[in-house]
Amino acid sequence: MRLASEAGLFLCYKLKFMKEILQQLFEYQSFSKQEAYNILTNIATGQYDSHQIAAFMTIYGMRSIKVDELAGFKEAMFDLCLKLDFEDFDLVDLCGTGGDGKNTFNISTLASFVVAGAGYSVAKHGNVGVSSACGSSNVMEYFGYQFTNDSDRLKKQLQEAGICFLHAPLFHPAMKTVAPIRRALGVKTFFNMLGPLTNPANPKKQAVGVFSLELARLYAYLYQQTDKSYQIIHSLDGYDEISLTGDFKIINNKGEHYYQLGDLNLPRASVESIAGGDSIADAAKIFKEILSGEADKIKSEVVLSNAAFAIQAFHEDKSFESCYQEAEKSLMDKQALKSFETLIKLSK
């Protein structure tokens, strides 16, 4: 009886604690970095029930996140993750926040293979789709890629394919707790903001797409505190990548840059031309067509534009045109396809 009573008191304490957190949010108060760190740690370690977590995530969908909160969540997520020691590789990650609601084809994943095919080492961080039909993990699994968190296997993939794929739930315990809640909600949450910031291989280069300009500037503040070479990408019509549907901004180590498509001799895409389809099979068909050189030109242009800025993270003084040419050669010479096929084979 005493144990049951103590358990009941502990549960009441947990409920009260989350009530206090929610009340703080209801009153438009923000959390300190340490408070945010503690909250995320408690979520990851199962200290709150699913209804409480859903309420917390929902409220964050209706308010802006503060830089200290994002920093605290990020540090907790990274401290808890299964880390990879890939210091022998000069790595880049091409990862978007998702959550833009645009349901594009898998642009950053395709760009990752283009960058790998161009001779760079890519540690691609990814997950299943939440607010889109097909996330990066969905399409990789469709093609038979077998997820792993085994360091030796991932190193072999990097050595032979130039790329490894890091399925987030295998590295982040918080993902196991919140995954069913995110799926049930079906909309972006603050966890979308954390994915690109918490790659377990901690790459020194990043090309990261974000769903809002406000978040891009928060990311820039956090990246300025590191030694990373970064390209933060946001299309001004709401895409978390260079969509070619309109103008876009890049924030990098040299500052904030506004680009019109004409500035870089890039074509304009229609919304329909970059749609990812209604199913994983649809997305996979587009994926393979692009790597095989069978897709329409505009889809390839979108992929190459994003790959070019990722390559530029390695060569800050290199022009976009030069980086684009590297990416184009990788795609046209089927080196990106070779990287993809090698990776799938090595994973089995």
Can you walk through the features of this model?
Strand 6 (248-252) and strand 7 (255-259) form a beta hairpin. Helices cover 50% and strands 11% of the residues. Residues 1-16 have low confidence and may be disordered. It is built from 14 helices and seven strands. Helix 3 (50-60) packs across helix 8 and helix 12 (297-312) packs across helix 13.
What does the main sheet amount to? 7 strands, mixed
First and last CA, distance: 52 Å
Q: Which whole number gives the mean pLDDT?
A: 91
**What fraction strand?**
5-15%
Which stretches are poorly predicted, pLDDT < 50 over at least 5 residues? 1-16
Order of H and E elements? HHHHEHEHHEHHEHEEEHHHH
SSE class: alpha/beta
Q: What's the count of strands? A: 7
Counting H and I runs of at least 4 residues, what is the number of helices? 14
**Cα gyration radius (Å):** 20 Å
Arrangement of strands in the largest sheet: 3-2-1-4-5-6-7
What shape does the CA trace take?
A: globular
Helix content: 40-55%
Key phrases:
348 residues; alpha/beta; disordered N terminus
SSE blueprint and pairings:
Elements lengths: L1 H25 L6 H12 L5 H11 L6 H14 L10 E6 L10 H11 L3 E6 L9 H7 L8 H11 L1 E5 L5 H13 L4 H5 L10 E5 L3 H11 L5 E7 L12 E5 L2 E5 L20 H12 L5 H16 L7 H13 L2 H13 L1
Helix pairs in contact: 1-3, 2-4, 2-8, 3-8, 5-12, 5-13, 5-14, 7-14, 12-13
What is this entry, summarized?
50% of the residues lie in helices and 11% in strands.
